[in-house]
Amino acid sequence: MRALAVIPSRYLSTRLEGKPLLKLGERTVVQRVWDATIASGEFDDVVVATDDQRIFDAVEAFGGVAVMTSPELSNGTERVAAAADLMPGDYDVVANVQGDQPFVSLAALSALLAPFREGEAVDMTTVSMPLQPELADDPNTVKIVTDVNGRALYFSRSLIPANPRGLDHAYLQHLGLYAFSRDVLRRFPTLTPTPLEQAENLEQLRALEHGLVIVARVAVSSSIEINTPEDYERAQAWVSEHEGVQA
């Protein structure tokens, strides 16, 4: 099985502009994602997909590979699909390793590809981890519920399930990692936007609403995804504490 990892990376983020080029220690956010993806050994090729020349130049400067995609694309999955079409290789699986996860783990990337490697009948895969209690009410932390076989039932910015009886329940946080069969990735940009996708502002709900099967494996990883200035401060503190360098 040949696998491609695409790291979509935009400069113009509404909540934290320029976040791919923010420094964490000696490396930028996008370089940390690149380094972790390469180090995993899970992918035959890795590429950063961007619509900004500053990010393109920064990736090439640290020795990475980047492609330019249209700024008119509406979401990260469309950017991944466009980047895959620009790559010369023939791939069975294409992964979206989002550029806001500088501490993505080997365990998470391995879990992402495991259902495909095991021959499971699946359209897409993703990854979850146990939800940290302090993030339960954070709308920037996406939650996921699955069926008994690990297939995604729903994603939300709210805490799900509601659990009004207060039962002991293992809540799950969704990590923004996806892998697609090559055919499904080609189809995704042709799918019409859907009501739940628009209500939650979560593009993975488009896949569920159109009947695609998403298998979610549980893996241990960092919960720090950089979406806001507060996330960046948390990431800086993590680097200072765990790597012994000033972030």
Write a concise synopsis of the structure shown.
With 247 residues, the protein is an alpha/beta fold. The protein has helices spanning 29-40, 53-61, 76-86, 106-117, 182-187, 195-200, 204-209, 229-243; strands spanning 3-9, 23-24, 27-28, 45-50, 66-68, 93-97, 124-130, 143-146, 152-156, 172-181, 214-218. The protein starts with a strand and ends with a helix.
Plain-language structure description:
This protein is an alpha/beta fold. The chain has 8 helices and 11 strands. It has helices spanning about 30-40, 55-60, 75-85, 105-115, 180-185, 195-200, 205-210, 230-245, and strands spanning about 5-10, 25, 25-30, 45-50, 65-70, 95, 125-130, 145, 150-155, 170-180, 215-220. The strands form 2 sheets. Strands 1, 4, 5, 6, 7, 8, 9, 10 and 11 form a 9-stranded mixed beta sheet that branches. A hairpin with a 2-residue loop joins strand 2 (about 25) and strand 3 (about 25-30). The mean pLDDT is about 95.
Number of helices: 8
- What's the alpha carbon Rg, rounded to whole Å? 17 Å
Query: What form results from the Cα inertia axes?
Result: globular
Total beta strands: 11
Find the structural class using helix and strand composition.
alpha/beta
List the helices and strands in order: EEEHEHEHEHEEEEHHHEH
Q: Work out the strand percent.
A: 15-25%
> What characterizes the major β-sheet?
9 strands, mixed
Overall average pLDDT: 93
Distance between the termini: 38 Å
Helical amount? 25-40%
